[in-house]
Amino acid sequence: MERKGIYSGDDAAVEGNEKREPKEGKRGKSSLLYSLAAQKATPPGGYPRIGHAARNSSDLAEFKLYHHPYSMDSQKVRLALEEKVIDYTSYHVNPLTGKNMDVSFFRTNPSAKLPIFQNGSHVIFRAIDIIQYIEKLSVSLSGEDNPISSKVMEWMEKIEDWSPKIFTLAHIPAKCRLFVSKFVRRVVIARMAQAPDLASVYHVKLREAYETEDRLKDPQNLKQSEEELSSLLDDAEAQLSVTTYLAGEYFTMADSMFVPILARIALLNLEKEYISCRPKIAAYYNLVKRRPSYKKVIGRYFSGWRKYRTLSKTSCFLCIRSMFRKY
């Protein structure tokens, strides 16, 4: 089925774009319809649920999310959308295979970062900005006056301050990391040839790739990233000794931003060093892993054997493309 939007390329390395089928009381797998009528009751540990029955065509709105399950920022936004029960059309854009460098996508977002959230002509790039928009949207639809609290916002900004890039790349086997980096650089060079008018902007991304490799050679950069992460986790451990979730007794947008960090640590097999040694965070992580939003956004890709399936698909895709020099 043809899909319209800023990006329409398909990606064989993942399970494909999702199309969401609205179902009463549950999130479906496809195109987004939502009702302006919201239930007033708040379910335990959650938010007011936004209904799915549209009264007429004027009540319909379309949200599009360009993301990938590997992207931590994408996970943050998807958790927020799932928790708020807002339907959207999902487009997979795999940065490991250079799909975020495709000309049509790059013209819209020269940073090439994920996710991108689109509501009609309104496009938002940063995860924290998208999540704040989702919160405001939910409040508007429910008709309640319940903006993000200062405590939630404080946690969101604290989480946003830690960049996972160096930490993640430093814990990936060098051979694999360099293979992907080399492939993506070749993709960028190929796109420069396709779109000469964007050559200078593509060159910025190429330079960034080399600068990242240089930063990884300095152990001090990794040490700094690890210290910042440990400080964030220590603060969370202290908070979770008082409350069930980061900002109180209910799951909030702060948790939507924090949970993907724990998932990234688990994906890198570093739970013992960063999670298990903090009993409150360990209990918290076990709690959130039971939430439907976690199972849908993260669990289906990275729980148990699934993470090896997800990683192997991308590895095979990269090897085949490299073999035939298809960039």
Automatic annotation (TrEMBL):
Residues 1-30 are annotated as: Disordered. Residues 16-27 have a biased composition (Basic and acidic residues). This is GST N-terminal domain-containing protein. Coiled coil: none annotated. InterPro entries: Glutathione-S-Trfase_C-like, Glutathione-S-Trfase_C_sf, Glutathione_S-Trfase_N, GST_C, TCHQD, Thioredoxin-like_sf. Belongs to the GST superfamily. One of its GO terms (molecular function) is glutathione transferase activity. Residues 61-142 form the GST N-terminal domain. Residues 149-311 form the GST C-terminal domain. PANTHER family: GLUTATHIONE S-TRANSFERASE TCHQD.
